[in-house]
Amino acid sequence: MSAEPAVAAVIDGKAFSQGLVERVAVAASRLEAAHGVKPGLAVIIVGEDPASQIYVRNKGETTLKAGMRSDTHRLAETTTQDELLALIAQLNADAGIHGILVQLPLPAHIDASAVLAAIDPDKDVDGFHVVNVGRLSVGVRGLVPCTPLGCLMLLKDQLGDLSGLNAVIVGRSNIVGKPMAQLLIGESCTVTVAHSRTRDLPALCRTADILVAAVGRPEMIKGDWIKPGATVIDVGINRVPSKDPVKAAEGKTRVVGDVDFAGASQVAGRITPVPGGVGPMTIACLLANTYTAACLSTGVEPEDLNA
Ligand code: GUN
Fold this sequence. Notes:
With 307 residues, the chain is α/β, with parallel strands linked by helices. The chain has helices at 13-35, 50-65, 81-92, 112-118, 130-138, 146-159, 177-186, 201-205, 245-249, 261-264, 279-298, and strands at 9-10, 40-46, 69-75, 99-102, 166-170, 190-194, 210-213, 231-234, 238-241, 253-256, 270-271. The strands form 3 sheets. Strands 1-11-8-7-5-6 form a 6-stranded parallel beta sheet.
């Protein structure tokens, strides 16, 4: 008689993110009651990119749901860099705005790094400003990029103390891979960052107690790359053709992660699904960062927002 294959517990990021938004809302209302400060988030979008429009609308709606101020600045595709920098200067000086997010990607005629550098680091709720990157790397409190922060919250909720665990991060982007590595070093994990030039990636992944996939390649990480019982965090959001050939011919798509979920969930101990895993955590962490920025600008210690 052969043993049944193990099936991983599925980490419900949607439920966790809803709880986090509720905790942010309660903390924000207490900040307002005690100090008269309502956290305010300004989101700037330049151009008409349809996916970005949806993201920005969701951010605005969720911000209002958490009882915070939400301003959305929709600028034409033809906006000049100087016009955008002038708006950022105005928002930097606005005491009612605690968080500023410029939706990426920007049109090609605008230098994104110059724009990100113009945001007041204490209002940089994306955590992309070099000052916040530096704070994270030396372990000083600052604003941390939303997606890796969301991954860390899920990991701590699932595993508690992470110290001594082997973490492998596949992907070395500034938005996910590098800050994720810093956060896990901060939790006393042994961290390896893998990328497209890494040799024998499957063998390296098999050493991971925590495997974070952030490469942007659909279902690249297979079940036999995973250490039995490991915790797998899938950051990928990839659109691929529908499984049904008729629907695929009509151009219908589905969303998959960077991990082959069916294979991996037979081996892993816990795994995030796509959709419904890391994705919903990003907006929730943006609100958490806006609340944190409002507290720090008011000289108030932020409440612990972990579950
Ligand atoms: N576009 C896609 N993801 C992000 C993000 O996390 N922040 C910003 N500003 N733009 C994005």
